[in-house]
Write the structure tokens for this entry.
Amino acid sequence: MEVSRIENLPPPPGIISSIKAGFDTIASHITAILMPLLLNLFLWLGPRLQMNALFDSIKNEVVGIWQRGGVPAQDIQRVLDFYESTIPHINLFWLLRTLPIGISSLLLPQEASSTPLGDPATLQVSALTFPGWILLLTFLGWVGGGLYFRSVAWIAVPNNEERALRTFRAIAQTILVSIACGIILLTIGMPLLLLLFLVTQLNTFLANLFILFLSLGSMWIIVPLFFWPHGVFVKKQNFVTSILSSIQLTRFTLPTSSMFILTIFLLSFGLNFLWNIPPEDSWMTLFGIFGHSFVTTALLAGSFIYYRDMSVWLQSVIEKLRPNSTIKQA
């Protein structure tokens, strides 16, 4: 009887079919890509918010402290070279793209600072305004991300009783999920990075084994965190109940869900090379921006559809495998 019940279980939702459903959904609701499209256009044609002037103002003092502290000259030069190659090209407006909930954006190459409209305006932060800009942009990213996820979930997984979260609840849960996710990653990540540093100092082979172990075990963390927001926007749960649902989903569907996340990542990351082919000062970049906005929104919609179907499948499996179900069938 037990073997018969297991054989009669329905197959789990397919990875490709969920992604295809996401593309079909967004193709028929193309306005869903407006938020990432507008954000990409702003990051491309809008002003740049930079912090190299702030760093330049304190660079000599920091170098002097390092020299008095006995830091080797070659190490100081290595840090300065890294600074010259990265800091001047950082646009703090990138903080509008928050994780794990945020509006998808395309990080365009910054070697050429010009755009089809000419050189963009440049804003510089100061020591006083730098923390304020960080907090403001992060908060705006959370608000935009909550509204973006809410709108895509509304389209991808309609609910006849209540089609979408209320705006305030969506934003509030987005902020709570983002803060809690950041705390979890810091709590887990910092000790692991310290341990990896110590192992690297001991033996390179042991360090490689440690990295392999982390890679294999990371899915137990990545999958619950990836689907954490989905419970909020699909099942309208609070951020605590949502992470518990995500952990339960991971417990029973880890291989399939891991492959789904890997497929999403490969599609999104791989296509970013295609979207970045046109130079930043060419209007051809519009095609890359549109393609990125459409694909990432479709993948997000596909993840909502996968989460809904997998949750329904998991619930049906649990119901069929309960002892009471066996008694009724007997």
User: Anything to note?
Assistant: The chain has one domain: 12-51+90-99+111-329. The first helix runs from residue 2 to 7.
